[in-house]
Design a protein that fits this description.
Helix content is about 60%, strand content about 5%. By secondary structure, the protein is mainly alpha-helical. The protein folds into two domains: about 280 residues, Fic-like fold; about 70 residues, Arc Repressor Mutant, subunit A (Orthogonal Bundle), CATH 1.10.10. It has a three-stranded antiparallel sheet with strand order 3-5-4, with helices on both faces. A hairpin with a 2-residue loop joins strand 1 and strand 2. The chain is globular. The two termini are about 35 Å apart.
C-alpha cells in the first residue's frame, strides 16, 4: 500500500550547509498494515518456521553448543555488512588468543557484537525490559573497544549523522536532527511495549527495525544494533526461547533490495513491501538454521561412530571431538586447561582425529599448534565470506 511519506523533513544546518533531515512519524503505520491474503499466508509460514526453530532446542543433544557457534557466525555476518573482513575462523582464533590473519580491529568489532548480544539477553532474562536504556547499554558494549570507541558509546548522538555520501549535503539519507532523537526513540520504546495495537511479534520486529534504522540514534553501530534488535524482540516476545534467529545472511545476500525497501517505506509509506521481504527472510532464515543444526548433529554422529570403531583409544578421542563441537578451532593447551587432559593424552587423541581426517592442523608448526574441525566449521561458514 502506498501511503504518504512516513515522516516530515526538517531543514537544519550542519557542517556549514543546510540539509533536509527526516523525522519519522511514530509507529504503528496509519492506516494500519494490510495483513490479508498472500501476506497473511506469509506471516503464518514465517511464524511456523520460527516455531520449528524454537523446537530445535529439544532435539539437539546440547543446544548451547549450537548457540555458541551460531551466534559467532551471526556476529561475523553482521559485521561484514558494515565492511569488516573478519571470518569465523579469525574470530575463533582471536578468542583463543592466537594471532588472526585479519586486521585486529575487525575481529574486535565481531567480538564486541557477541558481548553486546550476550549482555542484552542476560538482562532480559533477569527481567529487565527491552528499552532504550538497554539499547544504550548494549551499544556501550558494542563500541567499547576498537573502531568507533570514540563515538559516544552508550549515548544517543548529539550531532547530525548521515548515510551515504561524503558529507550531509550529498548524503543518500539524513536521519533526524540530534534534538529529535530522544523523542523519536521514546515513541519507538512506547510502541515496543504497547499491547493494545494487536501487532503480532514478527510484524512488530519488522516495523521496529525500520524505525530504528531511520532514526539512526547513535553515531556508529546502528546497523549492527538494529539487526540485534530483531533477535531480541523475538526472544523477548516469547517466539524464541533462545535468540536463534538472525537475518544478517539474508540481508547480506539481498542488501540492494533491503536498502531500496527502507527508502520506499520512508518516501511512500509502503510498509507492506518491506513486511513481505522481512517475512520471507524470517522463514528462509529459520528453515536454514534448522537444517544447519540437523547437519551438524548428523556430522558429529557419523564422526562419533567412526571414532568408536577405533578401539581402546576411542574414549579420549571422543572427549576431543566433544571439545571441538564447543570450539571448532582449538589448541592442545586449551584442551588440557578446559577439559582436564594431560598434554600427551590430548596430543595422542588429537593425532588420531587428524589421521582419521576429522581434524586438521592449521599452523604447520611444531609448537603452539592449532587444530580445526573442518567439516563442522565449513557448515557454519556457508555464506560467511567477506564482501
Amino acid at each position: 500500500m502506498r501511503r504518504k511519506a512516513t515522516g516530515t523533513y526538517q531543514t537544519t544546518s550542519t557542517a556549514g550547509e543546510q540539509v533536509r533531515a527526516f523525522v519519522p512519524l511514530p509507529l504503528p503505520p496509519v492506516p494500519p498494515l494490510e495483513i490479508t491474503g498472500p501476506r497473511q499466508v506469509l506471516l503464518e509460514r514465517a511464524t511456523l518456521a520460527v516455531g520449528r526453530l524454537d523446537s530445535i532446542s529439544t532435539l539437539l543433544p546440547d543446544p548451547h553448543l549450537f548457540l555458541y557457534s551460531y551466534v559467532r557466525r551471526e556476529a561475523v555476518l553482521s559485521s561484514q555488512i558494515e565492511g569488516t573482513q573478519s571470518s569465523l575462523s579469525d574470530l575463533l582464533l582471536f578468542e583463543l588468543a592466537e594471532a588472526p590473519g585479519t586486521p585486529l580491529d575487525d575481529v574486535v568489532e565481531v567480538s564486541n557484537y557477541i558481548a553486546a548480544l550476550e549482555h542484552g539477553v542476560a538482562r532480559i532474562r533477569d527481567g529487565f525490559p527491552l528499552s532504550n536504556r538497554l539499547l544504550r547499554e548494549m551499544h556501550a558494549v558494542l563500541m567499547a573497544k576498537g573502531r568507533g570507541s570514540e563515538k559516544q558509546p552508550g549515548e544517543f548522538r548529539r550531532s547530525q549523522n548521515w548515510i551515504g555520501g561524503t558529507r550531509p549535503g550529498n548524503a543518500h539519507f539524513v536521519p533526524p536532527p540530534p534534538e529529535e532523537v530522544g523523542t523519536c526513540m521514546g515513541a519507538l520504546e512506547k510502541f515496543l511495549h504497547d499491547e493494545t495495537t494487536g501487532v503480532p511479534v514478527l510484524l512488530k520486529a519488522a516495523l521496529a527495525h525500520v524505525q530504528f534504522e531511520t532514526i539512526h540514534p547513535f553515531l556508529d553501530g546502528n546497523g549492527r544494533l538494529g539487526r540485534l534488535l530483531i533477535a531480541l524482540l523475538l526472544h523477548h516476545g516469547g517466539l524464541l526461547s533462545e535468540p536463534l534467529l538472525y537475518l544478517s545472511l539474508y540481508l547480506k545476500e539481498n542488501r540492494r533490495a533491503y536498502y531500496d525497501l527502507l527508502d520506499r517505506v520512508r518516501a511512500t509509506g509502503d510498509w507492506e513491501a518491506w513486511v513481505d521481504f522481512f517475512l520471507e527472510g524470517v522463514e528462509q532464515t529459520a528453515r536454514s538454521a534448522v537444517q544447519t543444526a540437523q547437519r551438524l548433529v548428523q556430522l558429529v554422529g557419523a564422526d562419533t561412530v567412526r571414532i568408536q570403531q577405533t578401539g581402546r583409544a576411542a574414549a579420549n578421542a571422543l572427549r576431543v571431538l566433544s571439545a571441538l563441537r564447543q570450539r571448532p578451532v582449538i589448541t592442545l593447551q586449551h584442551l588440557c586447561k578446559e577439559h582436564a587432559m594431560t598434554f600427551p593424552t590430548a596430543s595422542k587423541a588429537m593425532h588420531s582425529l587428524v589421521s582419521a581426517g576429522i581434524a586438521r592442523e592449521l599452523t604447520g608448526q611444531r609448537r603452539n599448534r592449532v587444530f580445526v574441525y573442518d567439516a563442522y566449521l565449513s557448515i557454519l561458514n556457508e555464506g560467511g565470506q567477506p564482501l
